[in-house]
Amino acid sequence: MNSEEIYRPTPNDVVNVLRLLHDNGVSVQNSKKAYAELQQYQANPSFCILLSYVFGAEACPIQELQLGGSWIQYRRLAGITLKNNLEKSQYSLGLVAVKEAARCTLSVLGNPSDVRIARVAAQIIVKITALTSFGWWQECGMGNLSHLLLNELFEAGDLRTLSALYTLQYLMEDLPKEVGAASKDIIERVVTLVLDQNTKTNLQKAAFRMCFNIYEQAEQLDWNVEGLSPLQTGLTAASGTFAGVCTALLEQGCGGDIPLLIQVLRSCAIMLEYLDYFTPMPDAEMTKLIDWWIRRTIDLVSSRVDVGEYNLQLKTAAMDLLTAALKLYDRMGGNGPISFLMEPIPLMLPDLVQALVTCVPMSIEEMNGILANDDYRLRDATAVNYHLNEASKDISEDTFMDDDCGAATLRASALRCIDALCVFSSKETFPHLIEQIKILWGADRQLKEASIVLFGTIANGCYTEIELTVPDIIRQLIDTVMSLSEDIFVVSVAIWSLSRILEWAFICDEKILSDIVAAFVSRMQSTSKRVQQAAVSALNTAFVTGHNMGATARLVETFPYLSESIIACLPIYCDGNLSLLCDLALHLIAVAEDLNMTSRIGAAFKSNRIERIKYFETSYVALYINGVPNTHVDKDIFSIDRFVAGFLTRFPDSETSLKILGVWHAALKDAAERDIREDEDLLCNMMLTCCNFLGVTSTAALTEWSRQTQGSLASLGFQFLVTLPKQTVKSAAVTLLHRLLKFIEKSAYPNGIGEKLLVALTSSIRAIDDSYDKLDLVRLITLMVEMYFSEFPQIASVAFAAAVDALRSDAYNDSRWLFSQMAYDICHTLDAVPGLLVQSRPDEISRIMAQAENTCDKSSATISLMNALLSAEDIASAIFPDVMRLIYSWQQAACNFPGTREKISSMLLFYSSKHGEQLREHLSALHPNLREMILSTYSIS
């Protein structure tokens, strides 16, 4: 940030900015023209100072000015705009503008006139801290931010305390690395407000909500590793304290405050994941935990008392807490402290099951609400994008589910809890459930629908108990689906319930499976969107189940009429159902051997594409070129093109794929020129569709196309990566840039982009936490290093080091797979640039790969790593134990992957010649059977 002369707001400038804010938030018009005008000032330092001035003013500086709303509205809009500008423009605003924003906002934070202003001020403080540092505030003479929040404002009461709570929450959400282990001190400090009887109720609840929000946010972090991050260390250390507060509030009945009780129950569900961190505990405390977290929660579910407007939310929260406990018990194999919490459940099962079942039938109002939007000709509702959006949880209010989805959420929670109870103890749960199902089964559509959905829910957990009656029930369900006079709600759940027992059907006689699939297909052309979705989803499940069981051949006889139904449904499906239909068509063409049938399907989709692209173009022009209000872009074309790309994978046609690629390249270019930012789904779909067609076009055709377009597609990807804030868009851009480089190498990128992109990727991978996003970045970085190392060795080395830093060998489950994929990409780069081995942490790579499944990818990476090690003998010697671990992981499987056994033999030969004694000691420590296997497989004498 450079210093510059400070701008002083003038009355005329104030009037102009108030007009701009009026047109962008106070006025109901909120025109695109006004927003475009606002955007052009985004990186203007003087505009930033002007916004700070308006935000900090207690009253309108121009007294005689007639406002179109309250002054608080204008201040709030100025603050939100200031926050957005700080987030998007960052360092380009300059030090003076940022300091002025900090000074004004700090003043507002210390003396807020309204809760809405306090909230926005907190967000601005956090944006400035992210841009600078915690220490920056003191360096600039504005005081110690931590002391201000945790002491001065925290203890001041009323809105000042609320300001501190807002800021602390946003700091922990937005800057988890910077806050780190201090999260323990923050949580423990904040809960003192909750327990202090002298604290005002609104602040007590706000303090509790803040802690809840932080623990809820932490669920999104990658916990799939044995080593915790500093923030996770702090949260686990404070978990016992917060869990104790939850128990204390439950004991007090939350003072009769039902919204607070709901929040506490939701907090308990989250804190169960921390159970191992705050147990063991004294017997008296564990007894309290069992009593208030489980026994009293079952009482809440079973209670017939209606607590008023929050009744549905309270029941839902209680059910979700029980479900969380049951699932944790199952995940832990019934071991650990969670086993104690399960003690009350078997004794309370009869009342609990009956209460849960009571929540399953839908009301007439619910059914009518669904029917009102169920016709296949009605498009799904689309969300409205707002330019000025705070998008943070408000700790000052009670916010729960919308009223119109409360009952549906309660039903879903009840069914999840029933499913978990069946897994927990099917023998004890089944008798109570089957009695309820028998009672519900009848002619009444509400009760019949409920009984069928209950059967589908228990089909897996209670399979042993229902096994003998399954054939008869299936016949009844098939008849229900096939009956044209049956209610759509009953039909849709009958289809779903049948999809739950497909594994059983695949191992039974072929007629059962054929009849089930035929029933599904018969309902694909229903005029009900609900039935369409159920039928196509069930058919997709059938293909996935068949694939997993190696039994897709059992579906072959259904292919002719299934393909005809897909073709018939194609013109009338839209939105989510169309996407499901495309999935189904892709499943079918992947395994079908009848080329005439696959050709007909392909031709139908290509024909339908002509209409769908017209819908897209018309809606895009209406919204983004003509500015027609209340319109949205028709995105069905993306589902169609996903199928077309899949079809071209099996039946390549570079002319067709290149033509479609050109269409989306042009659309993406237009979106960039119009600076379309708010519809991230549109941008991601465009880029990922380009990726799909890159993958099905010949290298020669792609290379020529890239030459003709002068690498424009790569330039667009780079532009979206570095200029748009949304991580989803950045990830799509990274995927696009990787595909381009993978398929046509350096010719895909225009001159000058390589160096800039490496620098941007280095910065990006250090800033993100999501492991999937890291994997995408590692793949692009490693490929770029292979391509560009000779041109930019220094920059490439730094980028490679950043990619290596992303590795973790202490991961397990899903994350272990992600980190193994990163390791494989790094190994391939080492094979191409062996000189990078010294900074690649080969010991860590070896440990990661040793834990991975033996696959072709692992084979290729093993060969690459050992090639690099054999060219750097000192490093190979230094990490001998880790390399041996990798070798042992292969056992005899290396023989099944060409070149792997030979490369491992070369590695062992090196160790035998250089470190013979150490190798013999290592081998002698093995189990005799494993040692003999290694010796014989790799011909070690």
TrEMBL record:
<keyword id="KW-0653">Protein transport</keyword>
<dbReference type="GO" id="GO:0005737">
    <property type="term" value="C:cytoplasm"/>
</dbReference>
<keyword id="KW-0677">Repeat</keyword>
<keyword id="KW-0813">Transport</keyword>
<keyword id="KW-0963">Cytoplasm</keyword>
<dbReference type="InterPro" id="IPR011989">
    <property type="entry name" value="ARM-like"/>
</dbReference>
<protein>
    <submittedName>
        <fullName>Putative transportin2-like protein</fullName>
    </submittedName>
</protein>
<dbReference type="GO" id="GO:0006606">
    <property type="term" value="P:protein import into nucleus"/>
</dbReference>
<dbReference type="InterPro" id="IPR040122">
    <property type="entry name" value="Importin_beta"/>
</dbReference>
<dbReference type="InterPro" id="IPR016024">
    <property type="entry name" value="ARM-type_fold"/>
</dbReference>
